[in-house]
Every structure is written in structure tokens, then in C-alpha cells.
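Handout, section 4.2: multi-component inputs.
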Amino acid sequence: MKYALYTGCAAKGACPELYQSTMLVAKRLGIEVVEMLNAACCGAGVITEVDPDLALAINARTFAQAEALGLNIMTICGTCQGVMGMANHRLKTEEGLLDRINALLKPEGVKYNGRVEVKHLLWIIVGEIGVETLQRYVTRPLSNLRIAPFYGCYILRPSKYLGFDDPENPVSLEKVISALSAHPVDYEGKTKCCGFPLVLEKEPIAIGMVGANLKEAKDEGADALVTPCPLCHMNLDIYQERAEKKIGEKLALPIFHLPQLIGLAMGFTPKQLGLSRHLVSTETVVEKIQLKV
Amino acid sequence: MRVTLHIQKYNPEIDSKPHEEPYRLDVGRGTTVLEALMRLKNDADGTLTFRYACRSAICGSCAMEINGTEKLACKTQIRPELERHGEIRIGPLKNLPLIKDLVVAMQPFWEKVQSIRPWLEPLPHEQVDAARMRDAYKAFNNVEACIMCGACVAACTVYEVEKGFAGPAALAKAYRFVADPREAAVTERLDRLQGDGGIWDCTRCNYCVEVCPKDVKPMEAIILLRRASIESGLTETLGSRHITRFVDIIRHEGRLNEGLMPMKVIGFRIKDLLRILPLGIKMFLKGKVPFPFKLRPAIPGIKQVRAIFAARNPEKKKTG
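Output:
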């Protein structure tokens, strides 16, 4: 199994621990990756706010790079997945769109033929590798842990462009959590927004969302959360202390990137997985599975 | 087929809080949730309270939460819902005050719609650019389809934590007037939407797009209002700076520089700088952000990226 790895900006910026844990877990699972070092930012739904065609063109350039490699793209960010998945779907299905966008790329000698698929690591694990196979790699079952999934927005919605999980009833994170022998925690907030897009300009709203979602997970008995999106990770981890102040309640909920949680169950050390880079300490979880940080 | 509907009941005169009650009934292939509720009210429980009128997805009265998602009861069939979720749980819309059983107060919803002045403030007839009318109508036609059912507001993740937010339905309605060539007060409308509770409060979670029974796509209308704001020179809110600075960084480096981004958005607003600084330091100490001014090479193919930007925006070619 071989993929063109599109890391996105966060894994190469504020979440280096996502990148390092992805590389370990992908290798262990037998996913060979070619990193797309020359790919640009997907636009995160921001570029499209001022210029949809520009956002499509930048993504078409990325798709063309993977096409030249003869590989499909693996994303490790829920937001990248949503934005690129939607762009790809539109380019492939809307009449005349691919030609219009290719015209923008032509002076640079780039052309996208619409032959690439974009898939999140979560989808590859659940849809292609299979959770039964994942289970075989578990050397340190997380059976003491109650893990709350946090999907975030873009890996689920708008579902007509994504179409892996049912947005009303997603199960892929739960399947992974169970395969690692941990217990999935059900709560309403699992499909809601983390608030990250608002955190610079409307911090009170953004931390209100962090507080509401985490409190719900905590009330349902979660020891920690797992998310397939580094932007969710940033908001839930970095702003958790401020959210605690806002709701007047201690949360202390460690937030794991998807490959970090899988990596823990595969026996990688907290250091290998970059757990010390989180602002919310992961010690409670690590102690529960009898590991030293 | 015999099914059980778990319906939320609440009578403020008797109950201290809402509770769920199971109702069993036989349903046919196409039975809708609304038909089932009407039958239960007739045959099993006369107190069961819900709103409805047209029974054909036009009036917007019967929006409720079905298996955790905002839907019109008249447009939702029981069998597929059962196949999808394995059960049927019915409750009132969230985010609006509960009155009884499945009925919520719509007053806060109407107030938001009213706040955007949902009527045309017309230009004198001779000033209307009639040639623009057909395309303009295409642009806001889907917004006109709104039946004011409240599903989007009940699903809105911002409105859940900030009741001052105008919300998706009202803002979609606002876009309808901004996009209308007959409207005289476009600038004033955009101006009014810049502050707290306006277009920059949307987190782009896509919930409203997902749940809307009439495919209004309110979030996309909010994005069009943001674009119109920036194009008309309203560029100093933090929300609009977020977009323009983000685009600048991608044009310059090809990828986001998370050390630089917050500073570029916030600029010299001292209060906001002091707000983000402590977190920036903590992240820096954890090795999460590079020093903001550290020179980092752009992606190898940056020339290509800049050329695409220039192709979309020729006037920036010279300066960019």
C-alpha cells in the first residue's frame, strides 16, 4: 500500500507530534508514503472565502502532483480532507470546472486529469486496512481507557462531498478505539465544531465551544479525546485551560491525535509519539496504561 | 411493521424536566414521523404536543430533532430512519426555549430574522440595473427557498454557545437583500453585519448546510457576505484580516506560518496581542511553534503557486 502523503500545514507547524506519530504508525501498518514536499496549503476553507477558483486551482496543482506519481493522496488532517475532498469531487463532477481550473494551471505546465483520490488516514485504516488487521498490531491494549471520539467538522460535513462516515451516525473513530481495546464514549459533542476557526477573532465563542464539548465528554466519563484533525487538537488542547476558566470547572482532558493513540497501543513510547508537546498533560492516561512519560 | 418511537415529553405544569416515553405503533412502508405522531395523538396520547400545518415540507412548522439531527417530521420516513440509526428518538429543536413536548418558542428565531431588516429598501426604479437581475436572482434563489423552520439555528454550533449570534437563517436572508440589484442600502447592510453577532461569528462548521431541508446552504450565504464585505473595503475586522492575511501568507510561502499568522491578523491591537502572547510563549516552550520571525524557506514550487495567484488576481502581479 503506497500513498502520496499530504501532511498539511499544522503537522509541519504547530503539531509536529502529529507528523512524527503518523510516520511511525504508517510504517508499522505497512503504508508506504511519498511525502508531497512541494504541495501548497489546501486553503483550509479560508482562501475559498475570497476566491473559490483560486482555492480550487491550488488544490488541483496538488492533485496533479500525486497524479504524476501515480498515487492517491493520504491526508492526516480533517480540515485538509474536507477541503481537498470537496475540491476533488467538484473538479471531477461539475461540468466545465476542470477545464476552467486547468486553464489557470496551463501557463505553469500543470494539468490535472481527475484521476486521484484523497483519503484521510482514518478512512484508509478503517476502509482499506481494516480494524481487524489493526487489532493485530496492538501490543499494549488500552483496555483501561475510556476514549471520546472528536470528529470535528470537515471530515463529516458537507457529507455529499465526503461520503465515508454517516454524518448523523459516524462510526470510524469508534471502530478504531474499540480495536485498540479502549472503550468509546458516546456524547453529542463528538460531531460538533471545536471553534478553532474563530479563536483569533472571537475567542470567547471558540473557548465556549471547547468548554461545552469537553465538559460533555468528561461527564460521560471520558479519560481522553482522540481527533483526526490537528486544528481540533490545537483548540481543544491549547485553549483548554481558558475553557476551564470560562465554565468554572477543571477538565484536564488529554487530547490525542489519531496516530498518537494508535501508536500508544502499538507500543511506541510517549516520547516517540511527541506527547510532551501537548499543553494538557497526558500523564493521567499514560499512568492508566502503566507507562512512564 | 411494529416500531417503538422514543418521544421526549415535557409538561411544564407537571414535570421538572423533560423525559422520554416509548410509544409503540404499526407503520407502513412510507409512513412519516409526522403521520406517526398524528396517529399517536389520536389513538394513544391526546396530550402529545407538536406543531405542524402543511404536511408537505412547505410551511416549516414541524422541524424537530429526529435521532439527534434537525429534520422536518413530514419529510422524514420512519423506515429508512430506523435502518440508519437502529432506533427512533424524537425531541424538540435545541437552542430554542422549550414550551411543551416537541414545541419550542420561535420568538428568538423571528427576532434574529427581524434584526437584519428582511425587506427590500428599493432603489428608484430608473437606477436599477435590470440586466443584472437574472443572474442576481440565480445567486440568491436558493436562499429564497427558506421556509423558516429553525433547523439551522437549532443545529448551529455557535448559536449554542452565543445567543447573540444572528444565526444562519437570518444571515442567509441578509445575503438575499445584499445580492439584490434593486436594493439601495447594500453598504449599510454590510456595515451592520460586521460587529458582534454578525457574519464574522460563523465558525464554518457546515451544520446548517447539512440539516437544511430546503438546501438553502446558509453558511455559503454567510461566506458570500464576507466576500462582499472585503470587496467593499470592510477589511479591518479581525475576521476579514484573518482571511486576507492567510491568503497573503500562502501566496508568500505556499503554506501557513503558524508563528506569524496570529501576529499578522492581530497587528498592533495591544489588548489582543496581550491575549495571545501567553499562549504563544507556552506553545513555543513546548516546541509547537517556530519563532515567528525565523526565516523559513517557502515550499520549493512557490513560483508556481505565486503564478496561480497572479493568474487569478492580475493587479497583484506587479507588487506580489
